[in-house]
Amino acid sequence: MIAPRLEIDLAKINHNARSLVGRLGRRGISVTGVTKAVLGAPEIAAALVRAGVSFLGDPRIRNIRTMRSERIAAPIILIRSPMLSEVEQVVAQTDISVNTELEVVSRLSDAAHATQCTHGILLMVELGDLREGIMPAKLASFVREVLKFPNIALRGIGTNLACLNGVAPDARNMAELSALADSIDATFGHKLPPRPGFVAGPIARPGLEIVSGGNSANLQWALSGADTGRINDLRLGESILLGCDPLHRQSIDGLYTDAFVLIAEVIEMKVKPSKPWGEIAQTAFGEIPHSATDRIFDQTSQPNQTTQSILALGRQDTDTDGLLPPTGMNILGASSDHLVVDTRRTRLPVGAEIRFQLNYSALLHAMSSPFVTKQISAPSELTHEPAAFLHAGGIA
Fold first, then answer.
1. Looking at 36, 191, 275, 374, which residue is catalytic?
2. pLDDT above 70 for 132
3. Is the pTM of this model over 0.85?
4. Which of 106, 111, 269, 333 could form a disulfide with 91 if both were Cys (CB 3.0 to 4.6 A apart)?
């Protein structure tokens, strides 16, 4: 079979998504399935929709066009602030976009007016992680201006945490987001459409429809039993695809951690010294190896040897730091096209395949690489229970 390749199990992805949709649904929170890491692959998007996600979310118009071309039947949110150069495509391809700049909202309004449609927007609020977001003290004045634009519908507010600086979602910042939503409703509710699912007597109360609390890092908080307040949406990618909690990279009980497996082929197997020799300078990627402390190595002083395999896989294919090798193996290093693995006592013949699990960074890079073949399985019934822990791959 072709290598390197990424084997993708749609049934496991569907199971993970369905499980999280159910767990969060009991807390009054819907799921936006994020397709960023899989480049908007229609088969995976369809598996998320079948699992019951309310929206699909992606930061790139190209990925969204891919899903639209396959007629994926779900509303789609652009989860990165639109570039001015793409506002026409945003209006044409998405139902909602996240926004933080009035100039962008103005241009979206013009594009929506030109095509006689209404474009929904979600205003992102800064709550400490210092990526995108309007400062809370300025949100009300921002909303006031947004409501003046024709062909724009304010659908909700949201925030993003634990991405740039690792600020964790907790009771404090989630309560602040809920309070901001209540404040917007109290001040501008008469200008907002009725909120689906909220009924005060026989009349639906106007207000923000979506209060998006964040991403997979919110799961610990959301499922802890804490008061979720107004939070009624989470944008989930890593937790669905890899069964993992991003805050501490721990597996989530009942979810599969091996829906994606990266397979690489052995192209050399040799017994070699365990350390390099000669004068040590920078590597091809400008790094100074940890073994370079003495700067000079003498082959005669390095008697230890190791069984070393080289795989046809490198940094041009994936984030090699994000690979988990099979038990008993150790990754020694990588260049653009070579991954060097210490197989210890296991001698793998040329042509053998090694299976790796991936973290989110490795998955994102592998999906983006044109040199990695993507092999997507057809949906099938799950015949075994998912592991409740992260386990290593094996040798094929």
1. 36
2. yes
3. yes
4. 111
